[in-house]
Hints:
Layout lengths: L1 H15 L6 H12 L3 H8 L9 H13 L3 H14 L6 H17 L3 H14 L6 H17 L6 E3 L4 E7 L5 E7 L2 E7 L6 E4 H6 L3 E10 L5 E13 L2 E11 L5 E2 L4 E2 L2 E3 L1 H7 L1 E5 L3 E4 L11 E4 L2 E8 L2 E7 L7 E2 L1 H6 L1 H4 L4 E9 L2 E17 L2 E10 L14 E3 L1 H4 L2 E7 L4 E7 L3
Parallel strand pairs: 4-11, 5-8, 16-21
Antiparallel strand pairs: 1-8, 2-3, 2-13, 3-4, 5-11, 6-7, 7-8, 9-10, 12-13, 12-22, 14-15, 15-16, 15-19, 17-21, 18-19, 19-20, 22-23
Helix pairs in contact: 2-3, 3-4, 4-5, 4-6, 5-6, 6-7, 7-8
Amino acid sequence: MKYxxxxxxxxxxxxxxxxxxxxxxxxxxxxxxxxxxxxxLDKLMSGIKVREDDPELLLYKATIDNxxxxxxxxNRSISIILKKYxxxxxxxxxxxxxxxxxxxxxxxxxxxxxxxxxSIIVARYRHVCDSSEIETRExxxxxxxxxxxxxxxxxxxxxxxxxxxxxxxAGLFNVSVTLEKDTLDFVFDTGANFSxxxxxxxxxxxxKIVGGMARTGTSAGLKVExxxxxxxxxMGNIEVKNAAVIVLADSLLTFSNGAYRIMGIVGFxxxxxxxxxxxxxxxxxTVPQKPEAASERNLALYGQYLVVRVIAKxxxxxxxxxxGNTTTELSSLFFNNYRSxxxxxxxxxxxxxxxxxxxxxxxxxxxxxxxxxxxxxxFTLRSMMVxxxxxxxxxxxxxxxxxxxxxxxxxSEMKINFTSMNISFLELKKK
Length: 431
């Protein structure tokens, strides 16, 4: 009997001990967490069992669930940490926990929680943020404050949900949007945190203005101001109600002395609500009622950004995924990691980055070619810009570049699945 009791006690002790991981695993997990390499963090964590009495592993689980679109599960881990282990972590990590919870709230359209958590970051953790991060949080606060008491967006998807697509003169995806009885072309932009519409069109089609002025950043790193509104529209036979939209002055969306105008943008929240969509032959957007299962997670979310796993130079390199970018460009992180292959060997040129609000000039290097892979696709891009200094603010320091249309348009179909967190490029186009 004594032997049996001893065995039971030993079993209980083993069962309730925190999961043991090696020193190397612990160091690697923290390294991947700190560098925001979600894909390497996810791969290493897949073989580790997480227990609620291990705060570090809870942190990594909260991060992975946040990154790979399990906001409710991420919030559960964050709640345990804030309740039991708030003194275990330094202020920088505490700030990250509130940032993750704000990001989860953004995806769940809980804009009040997003507003409150961003406000906590600005009030309590300003000293562990750089100035550009504080600017971004303050900009988001202006948006979330305007829409935090508005009804949630509704998306109606019939069994054969589809809409017409085309590319505009800038090479960007455009989707046909119906406002009242008129059909217009809006840019379909995964990098847009919210949908956008020209002020003149907002007035014409009765967009409901809510809240005060709101600020947002652009792809050129500039700040623009507009007002938040709620818009109802259709894309083919897909119906969208109460979509949060930023109403911008016509001048901010007009380029080349009027030769090119962006009448509106369909942004990330609408796409996210689809759960899965595909763009085929640049002419058709289709949305299934039930997302398919995918075998790998090569797409992640960071705050309000999409991140794609790129394999290049025999390494896993996270890239920001923005279908509003015409070209794939490489960041200061890429430049600093591969400086010896670039500096003194690649031509240096002046370049201009444009977006809503204007353009910013800077210097960049021209990399002859880079062989990159995304999912099952692989392609060699040529004459790529490498930026020693980034224009997009603090977020860009974690990513090796912006993934653009010069890669996307080489394939007949692009499919994005937010349930499985997978992006795939299918069937290389014939020259």
